[in-house]
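Quick board copy: two proteins, each given as sequence then tokens.
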Amino acid sequence: MEYMFPSHRWLCKDEADGKVEVEIYPSEVLEIEKLINYEVTVVTGDVRAGGTNANVFCQIYGDEGKTEVLALKSRSNNFERGTTEIFKIEAHDVGKIYKMRIYHDGKGIGDGWFLETVDVKRLTMAMVQIEVKKEDTKKDKKKDKKKKKKEEEEEVEIVEELREVVETFTFPCNRWLARDEEDGEIVVELLTEDNEDLEVNSYEVHVFTGTMWGAGTDANVYINIYGEVGDTGERRLRKSNNLNKFEKGQEDIFNITAVDLGVLKKLRIRHDNSQASAGWFLDRVEIVDNKDDTTYFFPCKRWLAIDEDDGQLARELVPVDEAFMRKGDDDEEDSEATLGLEQKAMSTTYTVRIKTGEKKYAGTDANVFMILYGTKDDTGIINLKASKTHKNKFERGMIDEFTVESVDMGPLKKLRIGHDNCGGGSAGWFLDWVEIDAPSLGQKLRFPCGRWLDKGEDDGAIVRDLFPNPLQTELYTPFVPYEIKIFTSDVFAAGTDADVFIVLYGRDAVCTQQKSLCVNKRERMMYFERGAEDMFIVELEDVGDVIEKIRIGHDNRGVNPGWHLDRVEIRRLLRKGKGSETVIFPCECWLAKSEDDGETVRELVPSDIITEKLSRDGSLKVTEVEVEDALETHTYKVSVMTGDVYGAGTDANVFLTIYGDLGDTGERKLSKSETNSNKFERGSVDKFTIEAVDLGQIFKIKIRHDNSMVSADWYLDQVEVLDVDTEEVFLFLCERWLSRKREDRRIERVFYVKGYEGVREGLDSKKKNSALTVKSVDSNMNKKNKKKKEEEIELPIIPYHITICTGLERDASTTSRAYVIIIGANHTQTERLWLDLPDGRKGYEAGSLESFESHGWDVGEIKKVELGHDGATPESCWLVDELSVAVPTKGVKYIFACKCWLAKDRGDGLTARVFNVLDAEAVSISQKVIYEVTVVTGDVQNAGTDTQVFMSVFGANGSTEEMLLQKNEDRFERGQEDTFNMEIDDIAPLRKMRLRIDGSGSRPDWFLDKVIMRNLTTEEVSVFTYEEWLSRTRGPKRTMICEMAAVVDEEVMVELTTYIIQVKTSDVAGAGTDANVWLIVFGENGDTGTLALKECNKSNKFERKQVDTFRFSDILSLGDLSKVRVWHDNTGISPGWHLEYIDVKDEIMDKTFRFPCDRWLAKNDDDGQIMRELPCANNDYLDLNEKTKYEICVTTGDTAEAETKENAWIVLEGRKGRSKEFVMENSSKKKRFLRGNVDRFEFSSKNVGDIAGISLGHTPKDGKKVKGEAYWFVEEVIITERELGNKYIFSCNAAIPLSPKRDDFLTFECTKTVESFASKARSLVPVKYEIIVITGDEKGAGTDANVFITVYGSNGDSGRRQLRQRFRNLFEREQTDRFVLEMLDMGDLQKVRVEHDNSGLSPGWLLDRVEVTNTANGVTTIFLCGKWLDTKRADGQISRVLYPK
């Protein structure tokens, strides 16, 4: 374990709290490798000059692995003649020890050393059997004492106990480790004394250097041979049979003595890059095991050089079968067998990316080295010399890339990275992180560091061990190796230095990424010369068993980039058994702008497949098959139609990709138009020919331009693709701008074929999907819960709305990725919900307020919320001010005042914290239901739009606010059905919908076909049909707003009617007005929307004592009306208006509703309001003190035990009183309370007001005695009050015991009340509300903008009211402003919306809170805000919705 104790405080008498002693607690406990104690005793022989001054090292091998190399050193002068030294060492537990290696580095004078013996003591904790006396239990009985004594002596128990155990292993040596004694070796491997199975063996190592120019080296070469039983350790190849070792075409033979390794598995060979021109081409290594005389072949055929191949100085080689080695010898030509593919498949290639920090002097010129540690082995020292990305490595803020190969290391567990402090004063290095990507394992690990490797910074270390951060681990499908051979033709100027890339396609359009074969300019110069055969081994996605086609091309850069390609051969290993298959793709043509058809990209299909298999007798069997059913090359004629609108044409370069179910064409530039010399002009059609391998059914295209030249904006009307071979036509209706200035400013778009049914993905959604797949596996983060999860049922997925407020201190911002985990009762929890910022922004700025919508499992009642981020370096600190989590489907929101650091080196050092809901501020928000909304756009020319679309839905139980429907890149386009989920207030059953467009955007007109809404909980479907334009300029209505009636099961919920509205102005001096007047009528089915009172029977409207009649036809009937809202805009001379009443007549219902007013709507009369809400006068006649009827519906549980044959009784507890007891009879003729049944009863009673609770009893018929226990299980009770139709729902789910006593009953509280329309309309009486607005106390908190408020309650909303007072400067810093507004009784207040119009000099406003008091009943509701309404701060919003505390 590693414990971190953060402190960050003064220990000083005169600083902070003056304490000089402090208790600190660990912030994080990391599990690190477990080490145990070893004691190594070394006895130096009593021989003349037996001692040494060299540095001595040892390595211990056991059944469970090996330790790292351990340096044996202490403070005293060690290893003197005849001494015995003891070293205490902590190292990895290797289990039972079988051998050790001990050596010295030959430094110092008289380095020869005579070693007598080594003892290793291994200290571990183990279960040991111990004898313990048994204690007797029968102490109190005085009988048989004598017996007892005897027993005590005999009874001994054996128990196991955990004790520290010492095991000793002795290794006799008795030999010199000296260059000038015996065999000259300074390395020796020792076996334990009592060892029987193993013996020391010698290996003959033959090293063959290649024959090419510059193949030899004078550097020091080191080798390490691995077998089934351990390895030899790294040995320098010193004594060869040749004086000058490792020269071109030479064979060098070395002897290595080691404990027998068993069957050899691999070897690692490296050189230290010393001396001039150290690059070395190693052909192969052969090792002869002298004990049983077997030869192992390790082919290499690669450079070990920083300026050749992949720049590695070390290679790991694996042995191959002799048959593969012999394969080359049979042919006449000198064709060597290439086994790079086999070796690649057995080894793992790691791409290492190293990021130097963004700090002053962060870079280094020192030599950087690295060791990767897996669970089985490590890579040894890797010198990071050849960066693929930069010549000058490890400079500030740069990322350098290296390749490392290793065989069978096991999963990576840590890496060690350091430097040698060379390079003068600038050796210090600030390392940010190391990222290691292993495509063949399908994992990418991130090792954070964020510290200096500098003798003069931090803790002075220049070597650090780094561990992977599990939160940043990415998993993906593992890649497989392909050997790609490219044959350039032997034609004049056939070669190229351009960047050649390749893509492989399997069946069903599975393809790899586009892979460049050369990494840098040096390689591009080297490869693809005339007549050359170049081999590349690349790791790419697995495309399945069949390669259907490949695409190969180049970027046409460099001098004479034209290239004549003869053929491509791709070899890969067979899935089963030993062997490989080679697929041949003939080309034999130019990829050049100046030759043939000018194409630089070709698609090739296979002609032959050659399979090599190793048969049982050890020979190679080669079969060659012609490919019969290869895909044919098709010609596609593409017609591109540019729209006929102003500025539609473009001169930019246009690129097209066509996707079919068999594959895609890759991106092709549309260069030569067959119809116009000037392409893509307004209203023109351009035709292009594309050759590609058969794509099958084409379903989408991707088209983009590069925004070059003047006025690059392009309006694309449609694209037509004709497959010449099958004569099929695929039509893509586009009708969109590709422009950096218009619509959503994109210059790349995806279009689907007309009538496409499948799932559509935008350009962005691809990223999201891939991210989702990565996140769902989240490497090992969710392992702990995985086991539980499997047993559980899948929980439903619900939306969570999360907002995060970042603090304002220095370093408060972070660029890490943040996440939350929501935890419910009994350990249910969501996955990590990653909070990735939209628009690809990186990081949370100081003082920002970010909002996210995530989807996660429904964990029931939330208990805790974990917030964290994936930053693991000390730099990635983050100060979180406030976190809020809202669950719309539950109607709650929790606000956590965090005010804490999430950082390794701030506060208490945690990067993740769990917040308990009990500490949060819980706020009730309006509960939402999730609907699946499908919007169908008509198939009419230019039907699509990019305008803002707003929707409001009206139901029997209220209405929603206006909601913006997100365009999301490609919704609301011609002929499309767009389906998405929306959270909508629980107002079902739906009655009608209003859609409004605001006419913004480049294409403001929209032809709406219909909207379908499906309630995901009840599966009820409502259809709203329009089939007309929403537009200022098109269609018969020329309207931008429409209302549609809901159709449920082919029944229309509301019908059209005509409203005749009569407005009577009072007979008061100055009563008339010339201002513009508007009206909204409210009823059972919502409201009419804003009606302008313009067209009238009188020319001069609203004059004193005049009645004006307005007629509105084709309006969806609202049913019974409840109120009207009337207002004017205060224009004209003396705009004050005294209104007597308004009459509204519904022609279909033939009913008139009267709305009396008799008040001024004037700024300088009465209370100064120019907006009034008038309740309907028709609703007053009901007298509620009389008797009324109650209908009671009882649902009995659906199990056999639930039903009863006896009677039941109920008492209603109301706000005005308590009813008498109603007996619910159960007669033999009419059986009640059967399982799963719903029984209805009706009772008359005095009106008890709102029902708050009920008592339920269960009694035997005619007072019989009760035998045993009997129950009646009640699921729910619904009570309807008949006069007004209010409903009270009680969820009981309880068993009621049968009892003759009257005082045995259960009580239940009301779970839900559904207030009827009549009841709501009755409660609409004018009430004065006092609104207090308190502005915050921060610099610049006040505003001079105009402020508006809308209050929402259970009876509807107030409309948007301006908060104004005369002659007073409102909303200044730390000021309290009071306003009185008269509104119709809102019922329970649910939320308020506060907004300002951003006018004035500094309109930003910090609103602390709003308090609303209903002066009629004295109830005050407090709405906390504490946020800025400022376009430049927080989230830039100037409108906030506040919920009651």
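And the next:
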Amino acid sequence: MAAPAQPKKIVAPTVSQINAEFVTQLACKYWAPHIKKKSPFDIKVIEDIYEKEIVKSRFAIRKIMLLEFSQYLENYLWMNYSPEVSSKAYLMSICCMVNEKFRENVPAWEIFKKKPDHFPFFFKHILKAALAETDGEFSLHEQTVLLLFLDHCFNSLEVDLIRSQVQQLISLPMWMGLQPARLELELKKTPKLRKFWNLIKKNDEKMDPEAREQAYQERRFLSQLIQKFISVLKSVPLSEPVTMDKVHYCERFIELMIDLEALLPTRRWFNTILDDSHLLVHCYLSNLVRREEDGHLFSQLLDMLKFYTGFEINDQTGNALTENEMTTIHYDRITSLQRAAFAHFPELYDFALSNVAEVDTRESLVKFFGPLSSLFCSSNTLHQVASYLCLLPTLPKNEDTTFDKEFLLELLVSRHERRISQIQQLNQMPLYPTEKIIWDENIVPTEYYSGEGCLALPKLNLQFLTLHDYLLRNFNLFRLESTYEIRQDIEDSVSRMKPWQSEYGGVVFGGWARMAQPIVAFTVVEVAKPNIGENWPTRVRADVTINLNVRDHIKDEWEGLRKHDVCFLITVRPTKPYGTKFDRRRPFIEQVGLVYVRGCEIQGMLDDKGRVIEDGPEPRPNLRGESRTFRVFLDPNQYQQDMTNTIQNGAEDVYETFNIIMRRKPKENNFKAVLETIRNLMNTDCVVPDWLHDIILGYGDPSSAHYSKMPNQIATLDFNDTFLSIEHLKASFPGHNVKVTVEDPALQIPPFRITFPVRSGKGKKRKDADVEDEDTEEAKTLTVEPHVIPNRGPYPYNQPKRNTIQFTHTQIEAIRAGMQPGLTMVVGPPGTGKTDVAVQIISNIYHNFPEQRTLIVTHSNQALNQLFEKIMALDIDERHLLRLGHGEEELETEKDFSRYGRVNYVLARRIELLEEVKRLQKSLGVPGDASYTCETAGYFFLYQVMSRWEEYISKVKNKGSTLPDVTEVSTFFPFHEYFANAPQPIFKGRSYEEDMEIAEGCFRHIKKIFTQLEEFRASELLRSGLDRSKYLLVKEAKIIAMTCTHAALKRHDLVKLGFKYDNILMEEAAQILEIETFIPLLLQNPQDGFSRLKRWIMIGDHHQLPPVIKNMAFQKYSNMEQSLFTRFVRVGVPTVDLDAQGRARASLCNLYNWRYKNLGNLPHVQLLPEFSTANAGLLYDFQLINVEDFQGVGESEPNPYFYQNLGEAEYVVALFMYMCLLGYPADKISILTTYNGQKHLIRDIINRRCGNNPLIGRPNKVTTVDRFQGQQNDYILLSLVRTRAVGHLRDVRRLVVAMSRARLGLYIFARVSLFQNCFELTPAFSQLTARPLHLHIIPTEPFPTARKNGERPSHEVQIIKNMPQMANFVYNMYMHLIQTTHHYHQTLLQLPPAMVEEGEEVQNQETELETEEEAMTVQADIIPSPTETSCRQETPAFQTDTTPSETGATSTPEAIPALSETTPTVAGAVSAPAEANTPQDATSAPEETK
């Protein structure tokens, strides 16, 4: 197998290079935002830049990157564009900038929306240029740029400005491009289209000739573009050299075709045009497909296009076609061909009279039609057959066809051959990737994907053709993203094992790997028979034997492999001799000689007798020796393909060659289960609720699932404890009239029931203005009914728990929407109480609809645990709560909400309740053993308790007109003895109604005991813990929580159990992958063909970070990082935007609130002292601190994307130490950074400087911005690391997360000259750069301070110019603190005895002094003095020859050695080899360098 070429990484220019560039000099003169006096617009500047910088460099990304980053498009190109100055260079420059914005994944159309006037003119010129001759004004490379621009336009239909232009190209009038016979055939198929077609013709006649000509050009644009492409394709030779410009043009064109076919609005009319042009036939017969090297990607793209042209959908209605409908279409095509042959072509009689199954394969069609193509006159016959079927224009009499025979034959065969259905293809596909896919750069690109070329990957955009298409695209991408991670694991493990060729030609392993072992023996032990109708085995099992001569803990890991864990079987045949060094920069396959990779699934380890050791509570048997054998399941589809290849082609048997088995970390190894879940979904009849179907596919009215448009809207809702008072309720519905049913203010207390005016979504139009006004008035009137919760019993714990949060009016709207049926989308900016809203919705649904079940899904266990902890604080019975998955161990509660935890709770609770029954029985003097079981307790309640209660009620209820006596309520009460342990007196004796309510409350308490026991009866009947836990899940639990990953893994088991639910609430919805958001909708079987789902509440924030996708190609090219939540927002689904934050100071909130609609502050942010008080020792509550190179070095990159910056790391740690020395608690400070490399470097520095120092300690967390999403702290120190390019902080979502983590103080360390130029970051950085860029500290100000935020300090302010100065200052401050403490203790010891009351106190002080002296010794070691460290000779690996004075330090020269001596060498390489080799999370993931 050929080793793939390693793609080159694009190196971003440094700031100094940027400043030296010709482009930058022009920018500073003409358009840079920070320049006050700019030169007037000059068209020649654009011409020069295009010719000298773009064309001359052959559209080099580096040049275009510089231009785009300098705001060339926003501040110069589009601002000055008009028809008068339009030119080729102008058009191409704009297209290059837009394409670059898409490549960088930043918003591209904003500037056009602000100034839309000239866009139509601009777009028409683009169309004209795209059709120009390739050897004319526009080169093929330039036309490829135009194709890419058009593709971006077609994929941006949600933008009104773009849609208005694109719609003219892809609507019904484009059928003008069809040949007349085909047009007639299509109009005949769909009669209503003929009416529209006649209307179009009439309108055309009314147009003036010039406008008509323009319209005709637009309608024929795509047809003409296809013809132009075919001419370019035909110019590609078979074996002579071909320019890559031609190949790239062809690839981009096919990409554009795929994108047009994969969207219903464009496909509806375009698919017929594409079919009529026979583009696929031309492509498959082209020379480019036959060129193995150059045409590889083109062929893969062509297969994707073929898949979409034949997609199982009705183009006109958009309905998915069933397998039967597809078969009918196929039969119709074949029979029409047979009829044509029978009527007009005697030489095809045999074909015409055969049955369909005999003639619809490619082989049989070629057999019948092939002989015709060998005769010249018969080529005309083939043309006539095709024209009879309206595939080609009619052949004029006495003229020969211009099409070659091969084309005509392929046209007829490819159109009429039987195609395997998509679901069959999917079922025959192996789930594990093989070596062919794993190292195919077109399918699984390396981390160095630059975004330049196109790839053979599906895209996740706004819309999908059908649910099958939706699932299939996600299936393929999920599979390939997993493949990328598998490739990293294989490369890491196999290269660690160092396979070399032995002197006898075999394999010898010179190293070892924790995650891989050499295979001693491999045997296939079972190949089960196929199911009926299938050609692959139902099951293939094999035994793998390995020798575990390794350390005990690694041996335990191998022996701990559980059922369903996935491993990989690998064959290596190295060609390198023993001792050859492995070079990670060179292609992996040729170095290790990797030949095959196959996946397998563990069934279990075998015992001494060859039996599988089952997982279970029993202890595992102790096996002797080092040899271990595992029984594994192989992929039956893959096995069948391999065996077929061996038998038919004589290939070697793959399964006799394996010599390595590799395992993976369990957390990263769930891909197979998720893929099986998606495949099972595609094989079942996916029943999505009708009200959701179109929205999920991206069509129809985006607001159709909003509660206001749902037919089953609920008029009256009990808001339970949502409102704290009637005033709170009135404030929560601004603009509404609140009508309370009771007038007495004393009775207007919560809880409240509110009746809303319900209007159907489809209201009738009324002409009478008075009626309309009256209707509007009525629509704004709310009827509020206060009600009293019935007394639950005399014990204090009977009182319901109450909500204490005063929700804002937008939070109330979110809660109201969540209680109503339909889709609710809540956008929750940082600190706006998303979790509180979620918990209140869950509580309100629980109380309003007690028979319904709610499923809670989140992205992380942490979020699920936070939700659960808040749910427990509300009035929800804990027996109705259940938590699935492994994260329940992290719940910070004493109670266990896992399945077995709940089973134990039920059993324990049952015993408690039966004890209560026993006590009740005793208090009533009833003999027998009523508390033996739940069943006997039930009889006791029925015959003893109920009879006494009914007798009591008959005595004390109203008797006619006479009012009963108050004392009777207490006198006749039968349960006095039972309630003797309740607070006394039980009855107050003030009024009959009050005492009667207390009596009924007591009975409710008793009745609840027996109700619960009735529910717990099942646990008596079911004996095993597993059965009991299943019963709880299916019947008992009302609120079930799990992570999205758990839902995807366990769907099959849940459906099999008969799991049911009515509502779904998703937290962190913007962080969940599209497919993992969709699967939880289908965790239950439909009832009578309908889904019982009533509500879907999604809470998230699409302005914060998206799901983590490690591979940049899938993230950017395929848009896999787009969550379903984000897609819904883009489509236009209505959202409730929470608009008041209570986390951060108002000034800190301003750094990110520009990203949200009207985000304000809750009153306490202005009122509470902690928000109004200044940060002690620091002049500002937030500051951007400029950090220049330290010893001539800015950012460094010891491993790919493992960025570090020593100067910033030292500065951050110095500020942290300064704050701790002032008195700030270390756990209130977190240090964040944007890269994994910097995180490891900062941790190392903290370990060396202050980690074990009792005076300073460690910060709460040192982590990446991405990992800290969803968390917060009082003070955040943030290092942005980069000095060459902005990097992935250019993603505004990462900036929002970084800026919104701090409550009271944010201090950012960065290279200001780099970040202030970035257009996307301007709103935040303009505020940051408005303050001084040097750190301002107030060392003499005590912590905490009384100074108000913004006040001038009474103490002296000191300005820190650079990092060495700060480090030296902190060192001196620390030493001063130690000496002061020491002096204080000395003074205390010298006091005369009379001043000390007891001798013991002096002794205590002496003990403390000894401790202090010890501490001083330790701390002096931790923070070395400048003089000590300057004497030492060690030099870190990254240190250059630069002397301290060259760094511009204003402090003493000795301060720098004090730093550098203790700083870890080769940054990060020591601390994190795993992370260094393979980026493990989003922050270390490769990003497109700027």
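Board note added afterward: The longest strand covers residues 516-527.
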